[in-house]
Design a protein that fits this description.
heterodimer; A: alpha+beta; 60s Ribosomal Protein L30, Chain: A; Phosphoribosyl-aminoimidazole Synthetase, Chain A, domain 2; 7-stranded mixed sheet; 4-stranded mixed sheet; globular; B: 372 residues; alpha/beta; Rossmann fold; 17% strand
């Protein structure tokens, strides 16, 4: 692609996506070159093929795919681009894998400002570089105005699992500890606060972040004491723990007081009638860890910048009904069910 | 997650629990109804029943606006939303309320109806301003708490001369529902009421005097925080033990005896009582629902669009009616947790977070059934 030359540079400041940008002609090639390749720049993209070829070592690979339709496209703490990179890296990392490569597909709505697209692409490129995980192949389509909402992004991620490690959601056992890496609800409430123009004195910022570094530190400390990891995105902590309970055929008992929630998030939830347990996160993980390894894993997490507030929030228990039970700060108890309904549409 | 508010202090809860346990006569049983869905939610959310003695039972009342909305009104709204010119603005809770034959506003929206979620009646007015070619209908629902905001929306629309804004009014009033439970054929044994919180901030304490006087039932108006509920329970236990039956106000920080004059005047300006209104579970109750006064007929969706009440029936196996009257508990219903879940609600009590079935499903299933 670098070999191509275009008479005039694309007008990023004033231009908009039009149907020619998806038509396969010169306009599309230029858009890809001057926005995406420029932002993601790496040796695989520079070769300009429809696919990326790379060496794989021995061992197990993991692969994951994800789509991003968040509204608004830009929010405190991130945007759809950095979110797509972080979210996909995290899905790879939750298998204990080292993320290697990403792909990115873009569905652009006719009329999208090129300046916004560039901002998103630059943010993706920066997130990928910071994480050390290149975006090596991609695709661009344009749909007519009204058939999408600005931009939708689909990503795929590939990673390699360290030898001997096999994390899986069916491996939690009674007595295992549940560790949460930090405060919950930041992403969901950050998005919601922008959408509803809620003015809080403290701005609530999304926690969007790539967690593979934290995961590597946890694996080093916990080894095969780690049973399962998952990032509690849509549906929040409640949905994730219910999934794990079902897949491992166990229950969980949690201590509500041990679950970190930022005061601003708690206050916003109170105002909106929401429960932070159901609010989405994009830079947090839950680990179920054998009790013997729990303290070492927790200590390693707290030494990492993304795990400073990590806490043991409960334990797995034998329960054939697979209930997630929480002891409330008030002294009573209740179960924490799946989220039902549509509290938070299009948060990621 | 630390609740900073002193109304959720776990140590104070333990102290109150100790006092309730000490005062409750072990030889007696206590059956109190919390009228409001807000109380039902707090009781489930904070696990309050676990802090109460075995011989004290809380019975969930009909104070959940979504739960008492009859099938026919949902069907009316679905027909209205099918009109190509109409944009129906609703509160989120209404989306999944089942109409007849599994219909719901959620399905109507998927089928192409223009149905939008709003968080305030004023959002609907704003949509009417910016989309003058659409007929904006606000689905108004709720007890005395949400009626003043609807009144305000109508007044605002009138002042701005908005011709494309109307209200589908489903507002109901609280006292007739309490009377229906006490007067009804079920003869549910109730030893007292935890009285409404937010409703009482509007109507005050006076409307409940008749239940303490004529019906001899203790009433304690209580806030929606968990310690409010605990304290109200203690006050009710003491009234029962002492043979008293008066209206007491635990929620003094918000409720005045006369209520809120301005809000009451706002309601009276815009709304009048209907002769009767149908409640799911309680049937047709006289003077229990509101409609817009003739002076505001232009803003009344029922007059503008000729919405007819269809006499639709609930699913015959659904026990929502008996649950709303306090006769049955959610787990008594054979649909509960089988065909009827929050994802696939058959009855309205499974829809709102304030509904008895939804609260029991979401928070309460792990508890063993308590002796009645």
């Amino acid at each position: 692609m670098t070999a191509k030359t275009f008479r005039r540079k694309i007008d990023i400041a004033n231009g908009r996506v039009d149907l020619s940008h998806g038509a396969g002609g010169r306009a599309m090639a230029q858009l890809i070159d001057e926005i995406f390749v420029a932002a993601f720049d790496n040796e695989w993209l520079r070769r300009g093929n429809d696919q990326a070829a790379f060496e794989v070592g021995s061992g197990r690979l993991v692969m994951t795919t994800d789509s991003y339709v968040v509204s608004p496209l830009f929010f405190p703490g991130g945007d759809i681009g950095s979110l797509a990179v972080h979210g996909t890296i995290n899905d790879v990392a939750m298998a204990g894998a080292q993320p290697l490569y990403l792909s990115a597909g873009f569905i652009l709505e006719e009329g999208l400002a090129l300046a916004e697209l560039k901002r998103i692409a630059d943010s993706m490129g920066a997130a990928a570089r910071a994480a050390g995980v290149p975006i090596v192949t991609g695709d661009t389509k344009v749909v007519e105005r009204g058939k999408a909402d600005g931009v939708f992004i689909s990503t795929t991620g590939i990673g390699r699992v360290p030898v001997g490690l096999d994390l899986s959601a069916d491996k939690a056992r009674p007595g295992d500890r549940v560790i949460l890496s930090g405060s919950i609800g930041d992403h969901g409430i950050a998005i919601l606060s922008k959408r509803r123009h809620l003015a809080f004195e403290t701005e609530i910022v999304s926690d969007s972040a790539a967690l593979h570094g934290l995961v590597a530190a946890m694996i080093e400390a916990g080894g095969d004491g780690l049973r399962v990891m998952r990032d509690p995105t849509r549906g929040g902590l409640a949905a994730t723990l219910n999934e794990l309970a079902q897949q491992s055929r166990i229950g969980f008992r949690l201590d509500e007081m041990a679950i970190p929630v930022k005061p601003a998030v708690a206050a916003a939830c109170e105002l909106l009638g929401l429960d932070p347990l159901y609010a989405a996160n994009e830079g947090k993980l839950i680990a179920v860890v054998a009790s013997a390894a729990a303290d070492a894993v927790l200590a390693a997490m707290r030494r990492h910048p993304l795990g400073r507030e990590a806490a043991i929030i409960g334990e797995a228990v034998a329960d054939d009904r697979c209930f997630v039970h929480v002891t409330t700060g008030f002294g009573g108890g209740r179960i924490v069910d799946w989220l039902s309904g549509e509290q938070f549409p299009r948060i990621c | 997650m630390r609740d900073s508010g002193s109304y959720r202090d776990g140590r104070l809860a333990q102290q109150l629990a100790g006092r309730i346990a000490r005062d409750a006569d072990p030889a007696a049983t206590y059956r109190f109804m919390e009228f409001c869905g807000g109380h039902t939610h707090a009781i489930a959310r904070y696990g309050i029943e676990e802090l109460l003695p075995e011989n004290l039972r809380l019975i969930h009342g009909p104070g959940c606006p979504v739960c008492v909305l009859p099938v026919g009104r949902i069907d009316g709204a679905i027909r209205l939303a099918a009109h190509p010119a109409v944009t129906l603005c609703i509160y989120g809770d209404l989306m999944r309320v089942p109409g007849a034959q599994g219909r719901s506003l959620l399905r109507a929206k998927a089928a192409g109806a223009d149905i939008r979620l709003v968080y305030s009646s004023l959002d609907a007015v704003r949509i009417a301003e910016v989309e003058p070619t659409r007929a904006i209908v606000f689905f108004a629902i709720g007890f005395e708490t949400t009626t003043p905001p609807t009144a305000l929306a109508v007044r605002l629309a009138a002042r701005q001369g908005l011709r494309n804004f109307t209200v589908f009014c489903n507002h109901v009033v609280t006292p007739p529902a309490i009377r229906a439970i006490l007067d009804g054929p079920d003869q549910v044994r109730l030893d007292g009421f935890i009285g409404p919180a937010h409703v009482s901030t509007v109507i005050g304490t006076e409307p409940y005097e008749v239940f303490a006087g004529d019906f001899g039932k203790p009433v304690v108006i209580a806030g929606f925080e968990p310690l409010d509920v605990m304290q109200a329970v203690l006050m009710l236990v003491r009234q029962v033990n002492e043979g008293r039956h008066v209206v007491e106000n635990q929620y003094r920080r918000a409720v005045k005896p006369a209520g809120n004059d301005r809000a009451k005047a706002e309601i009276a300006e815009i709304f009048e009582l209907r002769e009767s209104f149908e409640w799911r579970g309680l049937g047709v109750l006289p003077a229990s629902g509101l409609r817009l006064r003739a002076a505001y007929a232009d803003f009344d969706a029922e007059r503008r669009f000729a919405i007819e009440d269809s006499p639709a029936k609930d699913n015959p196996a659904c026990e929502c009616g008996a649950i709303l009257r306090g006769v049955k508990q959610p787990a008594d219903c054979r649909l509960f947790g089988t065909l009827c879940t929050p994802e696939t609600p058959i009855g309205s009590c499974m829809v709102s977070a304030e509904g008895a079935c939804a609260a029991h499903w979401t928070y309460g299933r792990s508890r063993a059934r308590r002796a009645s």
